Amino acid sequence: MTSQTSEPETTTLYRPVGASELALIKASGFTCFPPRLPDQPIFYPVLNEEYATQIARDWNARYNQPAVGYVTRFRVVSSYLKSYDIKTVGGSTHQEYWIPAEDLDEFNQNIAGLIEVIAEYRSDSTRDA
């Protein structure tokens, strides 16, 4: 009789990030998101690539220094996410989880696999840099 261990069911999420946050993700070996800053009480992973792209392209690449935005994709154990509600914040595609900063370590422990960078957006002024 063979014992089969199955992988837990996961949910794919996205997170738009700037260069500073991406550097910290890279430093972790693409395994976790960095702790929130004191003025950031909530961690906001989003449910779809379209929404993450809007934030990375239209906000991070325009208002961050350096003016660049990245979209990350990662998987989280679905049973862990059941304790959080999905929030719709604007249009129907603007869906996200609100993870309290104090829960981020546990959230990171429930990431399955690595965090991937799937897109990069730069403002026109940094495109040729």
How many β-strands, per DSSP? 7
User: How many domain units?
Assistant: 1
**What would the CATH topology be?**
ADP-ribosylation fold
Major sheet details: 3 strands, antiparallel
CATH architecture: Alpha-Beta Barrel
Low-confidence stretches: none
Helix/strand-derived class? alpha+beta
Count of alpha/pi helices: 4
Overview features:
ADP-ribosylation fold, 3-stranded antiparallel beta sheet, 4 helices, 7 strands
Describe what this molecule looks like in 3D:
By secondary structure, the protein is of the alpha+beta class. It has one domain (10-122): ADP-ribosylation fold (Alpha-Beta Barrel). It has 4 helices and 7 strands. It has a 3-stranded antiparallel sheet with strand order 1-3-7. Strand 4 (86-88) and strand 5 (95-97) form a beta hairpin. The longest helix has 15 residues, at 49-63. The chain starts with 9 loop residues before the first strand and ends in a 7-residue tail after the last strand.
